[in-house]
Design goal:
Layout (H helix, E strand, L loop, with lengths): L5 H5 L7 H15 L8 H17 L2 H13 L15 H13 L17 E7 L1 H6 L1 E12 L15 E2 L8 E5 L4 E5 L8 E2 L12 E12 L8 E4 L15 E7 L6 E3 L2 E9 H6 L1 E6 L4 E6 L8 E4 L15 E8 L6 H13 L11
Parallel strand pairs: 1-9, 11-15
Antiparallel strand pairs: 2-7, 3-6, 4-5, 8-9, 10-11, 12-13, 14-15
Helix pairs in contact: 2-3
Length: 359
């Protein structure tokens, strides 16, 4: 007997095509068919072996899984593949891999599933976002059942080991020659079943509740910042760890400041004289006000940077800068003395600012 190598059983190479596998099977099936070998029990066993090898290798999905099993070093138990025997070692290995993501032997029972995160949006003023705030949020969540303490079982009883998977949370799917683990249908991969469920939560281990939580919003949050409150989300099933509450901030725009990352920008109106001669002026900040020097000859749109007066950076990482954009304000109406002074200025400075457009 060629052993537990299905390719060797059919006498083909590991790279054999579907047609080569089919031809080899037909030839051997005719040779060892029980009708042609009356009274020869060895031929009957050989025929079952050939049929089993063909069943696996002629199915693309089964063949891929079989090749993966061989590459991992799995061995068929003594007696070969007749009668649908599986890879005993691989049933354990692949069950653990599907449940925990890696090869293992004798894996422990699966931990109860963690609860889902809960997202809540809150609206903040620009000042609250800059200074930080203490707010209260309301969320509808599932909390651990007080009657059964989250176990899902009637008080006085407890979840039982799943009889189908024996607590592993996975069951083997017969692929002809070996078994591949998949979540147990009876316990949904939990490893335990509840025979006598809690009358309050009906076996889920959780009950619905509307909760109010105080939340500290740190200074410097932006529109869309996610503030996480650990352990205040949905309770996990059957006593599993709770998820988190995630507070998403929605910040209303400021009347004067525009945020760009951690920097803040604002337009600063100045008179023609202040722009031309230079001036020392005051501008607002998120904390109050600060003095700003406008250099002489400042043009409209000039950006002046004030370090450390921007938005607070999260995690106490300092602050951004304040960008003051000079906006030269031209008066709508002039008094007669103002007009006379401007006319004198024009007479003293007869330059043409548009001359460059025609050169």
């Amino acid at each position: 007997m060629p052993g537990d190598d299905l390719y060797a059983i059919l006498g083909v190479a590991k790279t054999a095509s579907d047609d080569e596998i089919k031809k080899a099977y037909r030839k051997l099936a005719r040779q060892y068919h029980p009708d042609a070998n009356q009274g020869n029990p060895g031929a009957e066993d050989r025929f079952k072996e050939i049929s089993h090898a063909h069943d696996v290798l002629s199915d693309p999905a089964k063949r891929r899984e079989y090749d993966a099993a061989r590459a991992f070093g799995g061995r068929m138990p003594p007696g070969g593949g007749s009668g649908g025997a599986g890879f005993g070692d691989f049933s354990d290995i692949f069950s653990d891999m599907f449940r925990r993501g890696g090869p293992s032997r004798g894996a422990p029972q699966q931990a109860p599933p963690r609860g889902a995160d809960v997202e809540v949006e809150v609206t903040l003023s620009f000042d609250q976002a800059m200074q930080g705030a203490q707010i209260v949020v309301t969320a509808d969540i599932n909390e651990s059942c007080a009657t059964c303490q989250g176990s899902g079982a009637r008080p006085g009883t407890s979840p039982q080991l799943c009889p189908d998977c024996r607590g592993r949370g996975v069951s083997g799917r017969d692929l002809g020659g070996f078994s591949l683990g998949q979540p147990c249908h009876r316990c949904a991969g939990n490893g335990t079943v509840i025979e006598d469920p809690c009358a309050t939560c009906h076996g889920s281990g959780t009950t619905s509740a509307r909760k109010r939580y105080p939340v500290k919003i740190p200074p410097g949050v932006k529109d869309g910042t996610r503030v996480r409150q650990a352990g205040k989300g949905q309770a996990g099933l059957r006593g599993g760890k709770s998820g988190d509450l995630i507070v998403i901030t929605r910040v209303t725009p400021s009347r004067i400041f525009v945020r760009n990352g951690d920097d803040l920008a604002l337009d600063v109106p100045v008179t023609i004289a202040e722009a031309a001669l230079g001036a020392q002026i005051e501008i607002p900040t998120i904390d109050g006000r600060v003095k700003l020097t406008v250099p002489a000859g400042s043009q409209d749109g000039r950006a002046l940077r004030v370090p450390g007066q921007g938005a607070p950076k999260l995690k106490n990482a300092g602050r951004g800068d304040l960008i003051a954009k000079v906006r030269v304000r031209v008066p709508d109406h002039l008094s007669d003395p103002q007009r006379e002074l401007l006319e004198q200025y024009v007479a003293l400075a007869p330059d043409d600012p548009r001359a460059g457009l025609f050169s």
